[in-house]
Task: inverse folding
Protein backbone atom coordinates (compact mmCIF):
# COMPACT_ATOMS: atom_id res chain seq x y z
CA UNK A 1 0.00 0.00 0.00
CA UNK A 2 1.08 3.54 -0.65
CA UNK A 3 2.16 5.70 2.26
CA UNK A 4 -0.45 7.99 3.67
CA UNK A 5 1.83 10.97 4.02
CA UNK A 6 2.66 13.18 6.97
CA UNK A 7 0.07 15.92 6.61
CA UNK A 8 -3.37 15.78 8.17
CA UNK A 9 -5.80 13.76 6.13
CA UNK A 10 -9.40 14.59 5.31
CA UNK A 11 -12.05 14.17 7.94
CA UNK A 12 -15.80 13.89 7.83
CA UNK A 13 -18.54 13.91 10.39
CA UNK A 14 -22.26 13.56 10.50
CA UNK A 15 -24.41 14.09 13.54
CA UNK A 16 -27.49 11.86 13.77
CA UNK A 17 -30.63 13.88 14.31
CA UNK A 18 -29.48 16.71 12.03
CA UNK A 19 -31.90 16.67 9.08
CA UNK A 20 -30.38 15.84 5.73
CA UNK A 21 -32.08 17.34 2.72
CA UNK A 22 -32.22 15.12 -0.34
CA UNK A 23 -30.38 17.73 -2.41
CA UNK A 24 -27.42 16.01 -4.00
CA UNK A 25 -26.09 19.19 -5.59
CA UNK A 26 -25.38 20.72 -2.18
CA UNK A 27 -23.74 17.58 -0.75
CA UNK A 28 -19.95 17.56 -0.85
CA UNK A 29 -18.16 14.29 -1.71
CA UNK A 30 -16.72 14.03 1.81
CA UNK A 31 -20.26 14.28 3.23
CA UNK A 32 -21.46 11.55 0.88
CA UNK A 33 -18.49 9.47 1.99
CA UNK A 34 -19.62 10.00 5.57
CA UNK A 35 -23.06 8.67 4.66
CA UNK A 36 -21.51 5.63 3.00
CA UNK A 37 -19.31 4.87 6.01
CA UNK A 38 -21.96 5.37 8.67
CA UNK A 39 -24.47 3.39 6.66
CA UNK A 40 -22.19 0.39 6.09
CA UNK A 41 -20.98 0.53 9.68
CA UNK A 42 -24.56 0.45 10.95
CA UNK A 43 -25.26 -2.64 8.81
CA UNK A 44 -22.16 -4.32 10.25
CA UNK A 45 -23.63 -3.64 13.68
CA UNK A 46 -26.78 -5.48 12.64
CA UNK A 47 -25.00 -8.43 11.00
CA UNK A 48 -22.25 -8.91 13.56
CA UNK A 49 -18.89 -10.56 12.88
CA UNK A 50 -20.21 -13.30 10.62
CA UNK A 51 -17.52 -15.37 8.91
CA UNK A 52 -18.06 -17.16 5.62
CA UNK A 53 -18.42 -20.53 7.35
CA UNK A 54 -21.15 -19.10 9.58
CA UNK A 55 -22.82 -17.59 6.52
CA UNK A 56 -22.87 -21.02 4.86
CA UNK A 57 -24.25 -22.63 8.01
CA UNK A 58 -27.15 -20.19 8.02
CA UNK A 59 -27.73 -20.75 4.33
CA UNK A 60 -27.90 -24.51 4.87
CA UNK A 61 -30.77 -24.04 7.33
CA UNK A 62 -32.98 -22.71 4.55
CA UNK A 63 -35.28 -25.23 2.91
CA UNK A 64 -35.54 -25.57 -0.84
CA UNK A 65 -38.95 -23.89 -0.72
CA UNK A 66 -37.46 -20.85 0.99
CA UNK A 67 -34.44 -20.64 -1.25
CA UNK A 68 -34.60 -17.65 -3.56
CA UNK A 69 -33.52 -17.75 -7.23
CA UNK A 70 -29.73 -17.78 -7.76
CA UNK A 71 -29.11 -18.39 -4.04
CA UNK A 72 -26.43 -21.01 -4.64
CA UNK A 73 -24.71 -18.93 -7.29
CA UNK A 74 -24.73 -15.88 -5.06
CA UNK A 75 -23.34 -17.87 -2.13
CA UNK A 76 -20.35 -18.79 -4.28
CA UNK A 77 -19.90 -15.16 -5.36
CA UNK A 78 -20.18 -13.92 -1.79
CA UNK A 79 -17.27 -16.14 -0.79
CA UNK A 80 -14.84 -14.00 -2.80
CA UNK A 81 -15.62 -10.97 -0.64
CA UNK A 82 -14.92 -12.67 2.69
CA UNK A 83 -11.43 -12.35 4.16
CA UNK A 84 -10.11 -15.11 6.38
CA UNK A 85 -9.28 -12.51 9.01
CA UNK A 86 -10.70 -9.10 9.81
CA UNK A 87 -8.53 -6.49 8.00
CA UNK A 88 -6.02 -4.62 10.12
CA UNK A 89 -7.20 -1.23 8.82
CA UNK A 90 -10.56 0.03 10.04
CA UNK A 91 -13.32 0.67 7.52
CA UNK A 92 -13.28 4.41 8.20
CA UNK A 93 -9.53 4.65 7.62
CA UNK A 94 -9.85 2.49 4.52
CA UNK A 95 -12.51 4.76 3.02
CA UNK A 96 -10.53 7.87 3.87
CA UNK A 97 -7.49 6.33 2.20
CA UNK A 98 -9.49 5.64 -0.96
CA UNK A 99 -10.92 9.16 -0.90
CA UNK A 100 -7.50 10.72 -0.44
CA UNK A 101 -5.67 8.88 -3.21
CA UNK A 102 -8.60 8.08 -5.54
CA UNK A 103 -11.18 10.79 -4.83
CA UNK A 104 -14.63 10.08 -6.24
CA UNK A 105 -17.82 12.06 -6.66
CA UNK A 106 -20.82 12.50 -4.40
CA UNK A 107 -22.90 10.38 -6.76
CA UNK A 108 -20.44 7.47 -6.63
CA UNK A 109 -20.46 7.34 -2.83
CA UNK A 110 -24.26 7.54 -2.65
CA UNK A 111 -24.72 4.94 -5.40
CA UNK A 112 -22.41 2.54 -3.56
CA UNK A 113 -24.43 3.09 -0.40
CA UNK A 114 -27.60 2.26 -2.32
CA UNK A 115 -26.07 -0.84 -3.92
CA UNK A 116 -25.05 -2.21 -0.54
CA UNK A 117 -28.49 -1.35 0.85
CA UNK A 118 -30.04 -3.54 -1.82
CA UNK A 119 -27.85 -6.61 -1.52
CA UNK A 120 -27.66 -6.50 2.28
CA UNK A 121 -30.98 -5.17 3.56
CA UNK A 122 -33.50 -5.35 0.73
CA UNK A 123 -32.64 -8.60 -1.03
CA UNK A 124 -30.62 -10.04 1.88
CA UNK A 125 -28.08 -11.67 -0.41
CA UNK A 126 -25.05 -11.07 1.77
CA UNK A 127 -24.52 -10.04 5.40
CA UNK A 128 -22.15 -7.09 5.59
CA UNK A 129 -19.64 -7.92 8.30
CA UNK A 130 -16.16 -6.93 9.43
CA UNK A 131 -14.88 -9.83 7.30
CA UNK A 132 -16.21 -8.55 3.97
CA UNK A 133 -17.13 -4.85 4.28
CA UNK A 134 -13.84 -3.55 2.86
CA UNK A 135 -14.04 -5.71 -0.26
CA UNK A 136 -17.74 -5.07 -0.81
CA UNK A 137 -17.21 -1.33 -0.59
CA UNK A 138 -14.21 -1.52 -2.91
CA UNK A 139 -16.15 -3.51 -5.51
CA UNK A 140 -19.18 -1.25 -5.20
CA UNK A 141 -17.13 1.91 -5.59
CA UNK A 142 -15.41 0.55 -8.69
CA UNK A 143 -18.72 -0.38 -10.30
CA UNK A 144 -20.33 2.96 -9.39
CA UNK A 145 -17.33 4.91 -10.68
CA UNK A 146 -17.45 3.25 -14.09
CA UNK A 147 -21.21 3.68 -14.20
CA UNK A 148 -21.38 7.36 -13.28
CA UNK A 149 -18.09 8.99 -14.21
CA UNK A 150 -16.61 9.56 -17.66
CA UNK A 151 -13.10 9.72 -16.23
CA UNK A 152 -11.92 7.45 -13.46
CA UNK A 153 -8.70 6.26 -11.89
CA UNK A 154 -6.77 3.51 -13.61
CA UNK A 155 -7.35 -0.09 -12.60
CA UNK A 156 -3.74 -0.32 -11.44
CA UNK A 157 -3.97 2.72 -9.18
CA UNK A 158 -7.34 1.79 -7.73
CA UNK A 159 -6.19 -1.73 -6.89
CA UNK A 160 -2.97 -0.45 -5.34
CA UNK A 161 -4.74 2.07 -3.13
CA UNK A 162 -7.34 -0.57 -2.26
CA UNK A 163 -4.60 -2.98 -1.24
CA UNK A 164 -5.57 -5.79 -3.62
CA UNK A 165 -4.14 -7.31 -6.80
CA UNK A 166 -5.52 -6.06 -10.12
CA UNK A 167 -6.99 -9.48 -10.92
CA UNK A 168 -8.69 -9.53 -7.53
CA UNK A 169 -10.21 -6.09 -8.10
CA UNK A 170 -11.54 -7.30 -11.45
CA UNK A 171 -13.10 -10.28 -9.68
CA UNK A 172 -14.75 -8.04 -7.08
CA UNK A 173 -16.14 -5.80 -9.80
CA UNK A 174 -17.62 -8.67 -11.81
CA UNK A 175 -18.98 -10.49 -8.76
CA UNK A 176 -20.57 -7.30 -7.44
CA UNK A 177 -22.41 -6.85 -10.74
CA UNK A 178 -23.73 -10.41 -10.51
CA UNK A 179 -24.87 -9.89 -6.92
CA UNK A 180 -26.76 -6.84 -8.18
CA UNK A 181 -28.11 -9.02 -11.02
CA UNK A 182 -26.70 -6.30 -13.30
CA UNK A 183 -29.57 -4.04 -12.25
CA UNK A 184 -27.35 -1.01 -11.75
CA UNK A 185 -29.86 1.71 -12.49
CA UNK A 186 -29.28 4.87 -10.48
CA UNK A 187 -30.75 8.31 -10.97
CA UNK A 188 -31.21 11.57 -9.10
CA UNK A 189 -34.37 10.33 -7.41
CA UNK A 190 -32.73 7.13 -6.14
CA UNK A 191 -29.69 8.97 -4.79
CA UNK A 192 -31.84 11.63 -3.13
CA UNK A 193 -33.94 8.89 -1.56
CA UNK A 194 -30.78 7.25 -0.23
CA UNK A 195 -29.95 10.46 1.66
CA UNK A 196 -33.42 10.66 3.18
CA UNK A 197 -33.70 6.96 4.01
CA UNK A 198 -30.21 6.96 5.43
CA UNK A 199 -31.12 9.66 7.93
CA UNK A 200 -34.01 7.53 9.15
CA UNK A 201 -31.85 4.39 9.42
CA UNK A 202 -29.10 6.33 11.13
CA UNK A 203 -31.42 7.76 13.75
CA UNK A 204 -32.81 4.30 14.50
CA UNK A 205 -29.51 2.40 14.45
CA UNK A 206 -27.30 4.87 16.28
CA UNK A 207 -29.82 6.39 18.71
CA UNK A 208 -28.76 9.95 18.05
CA UNK A 209 -25.11 9.35 18.95
CA UNK A 210 -22.68 11.65 17.16
CA UNK A 211 -20.03 9.85 15.14
CA UNK A 212 -16.84 11.56 14.04
CA UNK A 213 -14.36 10.02 11.64
CA UNK A 214 -10.90 11.52 11.33
CA UNK A 215 -7.81 10.29 9.60
CA UNK A 216 -4.78 9.67 11.85
Result:
Amino acid sequence: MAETGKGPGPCFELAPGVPLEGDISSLAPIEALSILYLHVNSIIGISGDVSYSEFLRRQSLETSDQERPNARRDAALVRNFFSRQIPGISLKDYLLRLHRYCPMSTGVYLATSWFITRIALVEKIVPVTAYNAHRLVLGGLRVATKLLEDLHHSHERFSKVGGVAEAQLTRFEIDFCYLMDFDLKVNYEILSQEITMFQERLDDALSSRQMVVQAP
